[in-house]
Design goal:
Blueprint: H1 26-53, H2 60-89, H3 95-108, H4 116-146, H5 148-152, H6 157-172, H7 176-184, H8 188-216, H9 228-237, H10 243-254, H11 266-275, H12 277-289
Helix pairs in contact: 1-2, 1-3, 1-4, 1-8, 2-7, 4-6, 4-7, 4-8, 6-11
Bound molecules: fe (ii) ion (2 copies).
One fe (ii) ion binds near residues 73, 76, 137 and 166.
């Protein structure tokens, strides 16, 4: 473990962000918007599970990293939640999909009434699921930091800043969930099992989320039915990650000598945060308003 993980305050102003924030490209807009549907409930769940793991951590350094991770994920959840409000103001009500996502994280993956041994199993299982998800959030975080074609397409600067600030912190804290998993358990069978379930579940949720948003978009009005060919076309333009890059990330995670520190570029991530308008805007807002 290296740098200290801690939440940063940010401030985003959404007034000028159009519904199709990748101009003329509702497919890419809504595929990426799916993150706003999934992350508030998902990241609140990370915090909820890790709070239960805290008493089991015997390494004080790791405990500090986990607390910092919880602070960052809690901040991410709030930032994405605001985008959901912005979507609603623009006539796209995300509630029906978000309710399903909340059911998944709060009920299906929530706390169940279990005997002590099963409670321990369920905690380890959920920590391992979070480590698997965090592998992909780090991969996607690095991808968005590098996604020049979205800037060239005229993507909204505030949305790009949200995605890059978040992506940069995902790269920064990429090892924490995995280190916690290793500290509490680290079973290879559990690593394989949870990744094998997590990968397909994420594809399913993102695909359905994108479809939901295109269907309920007041401008598109269901005229675009998303297909894999749309995805491949946009991936070819560099507006979404290639399927190859996403597929190859899975065997990397399952390699016996894997550690998340082998992934992503933390120096690049921290360099982005240093110039992130949302982070700087918060600082100047705080100076102006005390
Ligand atoms: Fe996050
Ligand atoms: Fe994360």
């Amino acid at each position: 473990m290296s740098n200290k993980i801690a939440p940063r305050r940010v401030r985003f102003s959404w007034e000028d962000t159009p519904l199709h924030w990748v101009p003329g490209d509702p497919f890419t807009t809504h595929l990426i918007n799916t993150l706003h549907l999934l992350l508030p409930a998902g990241e609140r769940w990370f915090v909820h599970v890790f709070r239960q793991a805290l008493p089991h951590i015997t390494d004080p350094l790791l405990r500090e990293q986990v607390k910092g991770f919880m602070g960052q994920e809690g901040t991410h959840a709030v930032a994405h939640q605001r985008v959901l409000e912005h979507l609603r103001e623009q006539g796209l009500d995300p509630a029906p999909y978000v309710e399903n996502v909340e059911w998944l994280f709060e009920r299906l993956l929530g706390d169940h009434t279990l005997p002590p041994a099963a409670r321990r199993f369920w905690l380890l299982e959920r920590v391992a699921i979070i480590a698997a998800i965090e592998h992909y959030t780090a991969v996607l975080g690095q991808w968005i930091l590098d996604a020049g074609p979205l800037d060239e397409a005229g993507a909204d600067a505030v949305m790009m800043d949200l995605l890059r600030w978040h992506g940069a912190e995902e790269v920064e804290h990429r090892s924490v969930a995995y280190d916690l998993f290793t500290h509490l358990d680290g079973s290879y069978a559990r690593r394989v099992r949870t990744m094998a379930g997590t990968g397909p579940a994420m594809i399913y949720l993102i695909r359905n989320g994108g479809r939901f948003l295109l269907e309920h978009d007041p401008i598109v009005r269901g005229r675009i039915v998303p297909k894999w060919s749309h995805y491949l076309y946009r991936a070819g333009q560099g507006r979404v990650p290639t399927l190859r890059s996403l597929a190859l990330a899975m065997p990397r995670y399952l390699r016996p000598g894997f550690h998340p520190s082998q992934e992503g570029d933390v120096r690049q991530a921290l360099a982005y945060i240093a110039v992130s308008p949302a982070h700087r805007e918060f600082e100047s807002y705080r100076r102006a308003h005390g």
